[in-house]
């Protein structure tokens, strides 16, 4: 008993940041694993001409922001209160479980629209993580507050703009306007909180818009013709039996 009492002070509960990191990791794994059958196709659609133009424009704006000293300033202090909400909304630990939850509720209630929306949103956020994560590691940029070297690009901003763009494509109406508003406030809040530079937020928004425009989209006509199977088969009914004609492109 004396030994046990002496050992008790050495046992410490997990640090809050460690718990958050574990939840974030599990959320990302879920977003990547659950829709795994469609993510390779979604990733393949990223390499389309219109996405290249969007990436070029976003990279140009981010470079311009970097060149003009995009260090966070006090002008955004007015969004401090809102940032407390958007920091949660834009986090993968919130948005990914929410998307999976919509998918699960739709599946359980056999509500096809809700199920498809939740599944598409999960795919969108999963692909966003697959793009943002490697960019953060490759850039190794120190955050303005010095917390770590995962500043570029802003993952929160990428998540929220991906959500807004996905909602816009699904609803094709004014419903997406509040989501875009939340995305802009999220980016502003990340700068105000000294979590990111302006260039991080600009590139995060670019990534989010590209991914949100890509998931579930059909390939371009040129790509479709190229991927239209190299082997075509066509059944030909005859009086006796069935013949198949094979054409190699």
Describe this protein's structure:
There is one protein chain. With 249 residues, this protein is mostly helical. The protein has a two-stranded antiparallel ribbon with strand order 1-2. The radius of gyration is 23 Å and the shape is globular. The protein starts with a helix and ends with a strand.
Number of helices, where a helix is a run of at least 4 consecutive DSSP H or I residues? 11
Strand content: 5-15%
Overall mean pLDDT:
81
- Helix-strand pattern, N to C? HHHHHHHHHHHEE
Form type: globular
In terms of per-residue confidence, which ranges show pLDDT below 50 for 5 or more consecutive residues?
Answer: 1-6, 220-239, 241-249
| Rg for CA atoms | 23 Å
In which order are the strands of the major sheet placed?
Answer: 1-2
Q: What is the straight-line distance between the termini?
A: 80 Å
The computed structural class is: mainly alpha
Instruction: State the total count of DSSP E strands.
Output: 2
Major β-sheet annotation: 2 strands, antiparallel
Proportion of helical residues: 55-70%
